[in-house]
Specification:
Helices cover 70% and strands 0% of the residues. The chain is mostly helical and 315 residues long.
């Protein structure tokens, strides 16, 4: 499940039929986990014959889950497929853990681990009802997750940059190190000017994701292979924003190396320009959306040129 590729089915693929079948296999797996757990919840243990029946039922349930997952062709969207794959993997891993727990626990009583493992399978199986139903919904979900991470990163950096605040105040205690007039733990005025332009780029990242997410919600469709592929391209490039912001944020802590900051700012700016280009060229961006694409492209260029000006003397 984790590494295999789907077989492109010969029959025409029907998404509603797939979801019905996946929901049923997850439900059966949840029931089999309950039966297995109950059978080993008190002595005496089940007979060899009953164990055989139980293990066959569990195995069949898991094979059915994997089989239905394999029905979902890549053409329905790689973002959707990854989410379904993760949910399926969790069910299989949950059942493996439950079986291991039962094999390693004495049958005198129902162990805490066994209860937790059974609950883990139930939770994994219930996830099927929350999965996005097509690639448009999957990409909305993926972009929403990216936006959440980026918002947190921007807030953290804003908090650290508050005027006069010691960025290491929460880690380094003064009494341990004595007075620190050390430049390595503080930002100079020049550092702060450079970092305000970096913050501009980070805020532009947040705005980009917000706008792209709204456009995918409003205009995104998963009716044709071309639309599905365009949505996947957007999700893939948006996934690069968060790691790029992290790298930039790390280089912004003192002692600041202006060239490292410039390099990481340029990487982030390049990712943002790509996001905007891919959005603009896709079906999620009708003429009514082009204004913000231009505005944000300008904002990225403006902040990047300020970073370049502040670091010119370092080259």
């Amino acid at each position: 499940v984790a590494e295999g590729e789907p077989g492109e089915g010969r029959e025409p693929f029907e998404l509603p039929r797939f979801w019905d079948a996946l929901g049923q296999t997850f439900q059966v797996t949840s029931q089999e986990a309950t039966k297995l757990s109950l059978a080993f919840s008190r002595p005496p243990p089940p007979s060899a014959e009953d164990c055989q029946k139980l293990s066959e039922a569990v195995q069949n349930a898991i094979l059915a889950v994997a089989t239905v997952y394999y029905w979902l062709p890549k053409g329905q969207g790689t973002t959707l497929r990854k989410m379904v794959r993760d949910a399926t993997t969790e069910v299989v891993e949950g059942m493996i853990q439950l079986t291991d727990t039962i094999l390693n626990a004495p049958v005198e009583s129902l162990s805490q681990e066994q209860l937790i493992s059974t609950g883990g399978v139930w939770e994994a199986c219930e996830q099927v009802s929350n999965l996005p139903r097509d690639n448009q919904a999957a990409v909305v979900s993926a972009l929403g997750a990216c936006l959440g991470v980026v918002k947190d990163a921007v807030e953290e950096m804003e908090h650290a940059l508050v005027e006069g605040q010691d960025p290491y105040g929460d880690i380094m205690e003064d009494e341990e190190l004595g007075f620190r007039g050390n430049r390595d733990t503080y930002w100079s005025e020049a550092d702060r000017q450079l970092l305000s332009s970096c913050m501009g780029l980070m805020k532009a990242s947040k705005a980009c994701l917000k706008k792209v997410l709204a456009a995918v919600k409003a205009h995104g469709k998963a009716d044709s292979p071309e639309q599905i592929a365009q949505l996947d391209d957007l999700a893939d490039i948006a996934n690069e924003i968060s790691p790029s912001i992290d790298e930039l944020a790390l280089s912004m802590y003192p002692p600041v190396n202006p060239l490292a900051v410039r390099l990481n700012a340029a990487k982030l700016a390049s990712v943002l320009k790509k996001v905007l280009e891919i959005a603009k060229a896709s079906h999620v961006c009708p003429p009514s959306e082009e204004g913000w694409v231009q505005f944000l492209t300008g904002a990225v260029d403006h902040n990047m040129s300020k970073v370049k000006n502040f670091t010119q003397g370092q080259l």
